[in-house]
Amino acid sequence: MDMAKATSVSKTIEQMVTHSEQPSSGFIVKETKFGSIESSPPLGPFPVIDMSLFSSQEHVGTELEKLKSSLSSAGCFQVVGHGMSDSFLDRVREVAVEFFQLPAEEKQKHARAVNEIEGYGSDLVVSDAQVFDWCHRLFLRVFPVHRRRLNLWPQHPPEFSEILNEYAMKLKTVTEVLSKAIAKSLNLEEYSFLNQFGDQALMQVRFNFYPPCSRPDLVHGVKPHTDRSGITILLQDREVEGLQIRVDGKWYRVPVIPHALVVNLGDQMQIMTNGIYKSPMHRVVTNTEKLRISIAAFTEPEPENEIGPVDQLIDEQRPKLYRNVRNYGAINYECYQKGLVALDTVRA
Ligand SMILES: O=C(O)CCC(=O)C(=O)O
Ligand SMILES: [Fe+2]
């Protein structure tokens, strides 16, 4: 795909929104393998877990039970008691909004290169048959720190980098605490997953901006996918819903709880838990009235690390479901281009 066509995708959304036009054909979903685009399926069975209770003798058992039952079915829950204040989370959202409100030329200074995902832009174009998502994104690697590409980090608003850095550090702690709790919920040693992530685990943050859309019934904010990560932590819009998760073949809405974080498992945790815990398929729908922003942080093992199902989760009843792999990110990307389900290609 040449540069002209790639940039025209992002311009098109803004122009169509400004002129209240119908989405152009490149955005229209023609076949939905995973069910029609409904804006209001039922609310999902996603529990709210209070992380501060992990250190309470009295309550930890109940919280770990909730974690276990949600991860073995839906693969998703929300967390409170994560240690971040409401005002801090609002600040994180605000800097994202301020960035997206900048004039297009200003945002383009941080544009991603045509064949790269890091930076600001719309969908990376990988095939002529591709249907585009109704979304602009700013995608930045935050860990390991020496791999940050600071030229892609916004200069406006001026406090963007400082806030993102602080948010990333806090999310790192939350992710570590959750990894240990996930291990405990399976009666494993606390570091069973963290050891596979390694000290140089990757964290990438994606700021998603979904403009209102005149035909939410015809486009996806983000098309159905599973995350390639180990663990994804999502800060949803304070007010506007849009995320849906598929459980047992049906779509469910994830409710907005303004100061909770949504936790989704990614494919690499499904591998490490030998398929006991699920990496849920999810999608985002748009609406006619309101724009939506969300901030997703994906943590995954160091690409060079070999990861695989934890030994204690393999037995005669549950043989090893996945083989050991390195660089799952690259496998996932290749499958995406070929239209294959990445997890199916790494079965034992
Ligand atoms: O916007 C959302 O709620 C989810 C976005 C998402 O699934 C992603 O960025 O991978
Ligand atoms: Fe996702």
From TrEMBL:
Keywords, alphabetical: Iron, Metal-binding, Oxidoreductase
UniProt-recorded name of the protein: Fe2OG dioxygenase domain-containing protein
Fe2OG dioxygenase domain ranges (all copies): 201-301
InterPro entries: DIOX_N, IPNS-like_FE2OG_OXY, IPNS-like_sf, Oxoglu/Fe-dep_dioxygenase_dom, Plant_2OG-oxidoreductases
Similarity field: Belongs to the iron/ascorbate-dependent oxidoreductase family.
Compositional bias of kind Polar residues: 7-23
Region (Disordered): 1-23
Pfam name, any one: 2OG-FeII_Oxy
PANTHER family: OXOGLUTARATE/IRON-DEPENDENT DIOXYGENASE
Lineage top rank: taxon: Eukaryota
An annotated Gene Ontology molecular function: oxidoreductase activity
Species for this entry: Citrus sinensis (Sweet orange)
